[in-house]
Design a protein that fits this description.
elongated, Multidrug efflux transporter AcrB transmembrane fold
């Protein structure tokens, strides 16, 4: 959005499609990290170590998605000729947005996760207690 305000591009239908694509790609990257951090907490790690492990483990897929998007759309930034403004706007939005969004995903998301995410290790303890109660109930009914 900032690039359209700085007069690098205009807000048109092509840039709006680029925004929608950008939101989907950045959300996917964030979901990868958050879901893996939740999984690591369920396996017994505390919240800090879980988000660090998730960011380290998912760094490669996030960077690969970013590289593929940026390299694939970079020619649209350099385009000239008929219809160049339309193609240029989607290229600028996607290339710049993916670079900025990836930095936010890798640097800001873990901090926000530490503040907002619930502690899933407690869920694991509750689930284990519930399973133990079920096992005790099943044994008691089998013995009678």
């Amino acid at each position: 959005m900032m690039f359209s305000f700085l007069d690098f591009t205009t807000i048109n239908i092509y840039s709006q499609v680029g925004f929608i694509t950008l939101v989907g790609l950045i959300a996917k990257n964030g979901i990868l990290i958050v879901e893996f951090a939740n999984h690591m907490q369920r396996q017994g790690l505390d919240k800090l170590n879980a988000v660090i492990k998730a960011a380290q483990t998912r760094l490669r897929p996030v960077l690969m998605t970013t590289a593929a998007t940026v390299l694939g759309h970079f020619p649209l930034v350099l385009v000239t000729g008929a219809g160049a403004e339309a193609r240029n706007s989607i290229g600028i939005i996607l290339v710049a947005g993916m670079l900025v969004g990836t930095m936010f995903t890798l640097l800001v998301l873990p901090s926000v996760y530490m503040v907002l995410a619930s502690d899933h290790s407690e869920d694991n303890a509750k689930e284990a207690a519930a399973n133990a109660d079920l096992m005790i109930g099943a044994r008691a009914s089998a013995q009678s």
